[in-house]
Structure formats: structure tokens, C-alpha cells
């Protein structure tokens, strides 16, 4: 079931999303060669807790056969697509890192992600990040009252494929609010005019995960990290947004 949020609920979601955006901004400033992903995790956790909020991903379980997610953020480097677990990995110049932050505050969630260059990166990785971010904004443009969910999906997919990259099929965006993951699923590929109808005061997270090579992904032995099967680099950008009568409101805008 897709929830339509009340004004009060939207205010709470907006608050959580604000902490998400501020945390991502702080993380972005700290990405440089030599820092570990674990250090980034601590920076995020401190900031979130100091805002009377909780890191939404810590302790999150994907169901029966899943271990609880052990960290506050996801930090996915190079061929890691999403759900990379922060730890002792030292960032090196030339790498790209996707940072994903979820916040739970006063009963409501916010969720967003961005990819950042570490030092100097190749033109190909630069293009990957630009195309992924632009595809997110093209998807957001389609998140209008009366449109269909897959209008978003189609906008993301067509732009990405025109640029020679591929859209991960196995993971989707989602509704967000009282739960981190709500209906509807928001795939990054699909056919225009299909899927659920979008309505004013729905809140959804749109999150293209884009690979330079093939779209196939695999899961690492840690039970969480998702990697490209062909080892090609991957980028991820995400915003939580509110559907309105007019343009969507980007709730996690920095
Ligand atoms: N933004 C991701 C998602 O919506 C982050 C989830 S990480 C997890 O799926 F640990 F909570 F799974
Ligand atoms: Co998400």
C-alpha cells in the first residue's frame, strides 16, 4: 500500500531528510586520499546522534537470512554498487565512493546518497558520476502528481543507456516515511505510463545505481556488499522527494 502523508508527517520527514543532507555534506568534505571508510562512518554517526536522531541503517535486516547491518552509513568504493560496509579500507586517489545515509528521527525516515571522487579520477569515472546524477534529476522531474512510477524509471534508463552505461536491475528506489522502505518500488528501468499512479503528498526515494559495464551484480561474502559482476565501476545518487501539485520538492537537497 502506498501511503499519502499528512502535513504533520511531511514535516517530520523533512526534518529527518535535513539531517541526511547535512550529514552527506559533511562526509563529502571529508573524502580525501588517506581517510578510511570507517572514519567516515564515525563522522556520520556522531553528527546524526548530535541531532537527536539515529542512523537508520544500523541494525537494519533484509529479512530471515540477513545479518543486521553493522554500520551507520554505506560506503561503496569503485565496483561496489551499494551496501558497502565501512571499515579499515583506506581511500586512494582515483577511486570513487558512493555514500548512503539514512536517518530516523521522531518516528520518520529520510534517505539519500551521493558519489564522490577521491583525488583525481579518470574522465570515464567522471562521466559515470555526471550521468548518474543527471539521471536522478531527470527521474525526479517525472515525479509529478498524476504521472506513473515507471515514468521515473523510463527517464532514468533512457538517459543512462543513451550515454552507454547500464542500469542495475536488482535494486530499486522506494517509498519512504514511517518505514525506511515502503511501497511503491521505484525501479530505474521500465516502460512509460505503467506502474502505480503518483499522487500529491507521497514521499519516495529515487536512487539510480549505474554501472560502466554490464548491469549484472553479485553479493559479497559479507552478506551485504553488492558489486558489479564484471568489476566495472558503479555510481549511486539518491534523493528523498515529496510529490506536490507542482515541481517535486527535494527533501534531501544539500
Ligand atoms: N539507500 C539504501 C536503500 O534504500 C540503503 C539501505 S542500507 C541498509 O536500500 F543497510 F539499510 F540496507
Ligand atoms: Co534508499
Helical amount among residues, as a percent range? 25-40%
Task: Identify the overall geometry.
Answer: globular
Number of strands: 15
CATH architecture: Alpha-Beta Complex
Structural class by secondary-structure content: alpha+beta
Q: In DSSP terms, counting alpha (H) and pi (I) runs of 4 or more, how many helices?
A: 4
Q: Which ions and ligands are bound to the chains? A: 2-amino-4-trifluoromethylsulfanyl-butyric acid, cobalt (II) ion
Domains (count): 1
Give the strand order of the largest sheet, numbering strands 1, 2, ... along the chain.
8-7-9-14-15
Q: Gap between N and C termini, in Å?
A: 30 Å
The radius of gyration computed from the alpha-carbon positions, rounded to a whole number of angstroms, is: 17 Å
CATH superfamily: Creatinase/methionine aminopeptidase superfamily
Sketch the topology as an H/E string, one letter per element.
HHEEEEEHHEEEEEEEEEE
- Could you give a short account of the major beta sheet? 5 strands, antiparallel
Could you tell me the mean pLDDT?
Answer: 98
In the CATH scheme, the class would be: Alpha Beta
SSE order and pairing:
Elements: H1 7-30, H2 37-49, E1 54-55, E2 73-77, E3 80-82, E4 96-105, E5 108-117, H3 123-141, H4 149-162, E6 166-167, E7 173-175, E8 182-186, E9 203-206, E10 209-211, E11 217-219, E12 226-228, E13 234-236, E14 239-242, E15 249-250
Antiparallel strand pairs: 1-4, 2-4, 3-12, 4-5, 6-10, 7-8, 7-9, 9-14, 10-13, 11-12, 14-15
The protein binds 2-amino-4-trifluoromethylsulfanyl-butyric acid (MF3) and cobalt (II) ion.
Amino acid at each position: 500500500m502506498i501511503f499519502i502523508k499528512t502535513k504533520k508527517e511531511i514535516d517530520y520527514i523533512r526534518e529527518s531528510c535535513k539531517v541526511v543532507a547535512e550529514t552527506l555534506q559533511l562526509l563529502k568534505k571529508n573524502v580525501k586520499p588517506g581517510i578510511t571508510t570507517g572514519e567516515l562512518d564515525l563522522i556520520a554517526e556522531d553528527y546524526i546522534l548530535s541531532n537527536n536522531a539515529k542512523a537508520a541503517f544500523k541494525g537494519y535486516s533484509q529479512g530471515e537470512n540477513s545479518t543486521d547491518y553493522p554500520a551507520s552509513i554505506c560506503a561503496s568504493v569503485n565496483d561496489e554498487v551499494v551496501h558497502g560496509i565501512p571499515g579499515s579500507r583506506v581511500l586512494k586517489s582515483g577511486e570513487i565512493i558512493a555514500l548512503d545515509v539514512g536517518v530516523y528521527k521522531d518516528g520518520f525516515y529520510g534517505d539519500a546518497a551521493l558519489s564522490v571522487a577521491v583525488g583525481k579520477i579518470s574522465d570515464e569515472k567522471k562521466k559515470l558520476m555526471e550521468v548518474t546524477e543527471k539521471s536522478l534529476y531527470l527521474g525526479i522531474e517525472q515525479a509529478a502528481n498524476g504521472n506513473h512510477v515507471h515514468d521515473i524509471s523510463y527517464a532514468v534508463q533512457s538517459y543512462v543507456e543513451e550515454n552507454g552505461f547500464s542500469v542495475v536491475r536488482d535494486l530499486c528506489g522506494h517509498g519512504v516515511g514511517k518505514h525506511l522502505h515502503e511501497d511503491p518500488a521505484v525501479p530505474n528501468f521500465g516502460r512509460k505510463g505503467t506502474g502505480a499512479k503518483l499522487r500529491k503528498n507521497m514521499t519516495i526515494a529515487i536512487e539510480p545505481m549505474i554501472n560502466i559495464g554490464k548491469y549484472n551484480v553479485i553479493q559479497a561474502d559479507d552478506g551485504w556488499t553488492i558489486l558489479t559482476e564484471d568489476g566495472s565501476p558503479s555510481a549511486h545518487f539518491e534523493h528523498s522527494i515529496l510529490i506536490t501539485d507542482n515541481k517535486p520538492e527535494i527533501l534531501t537537497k544539500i
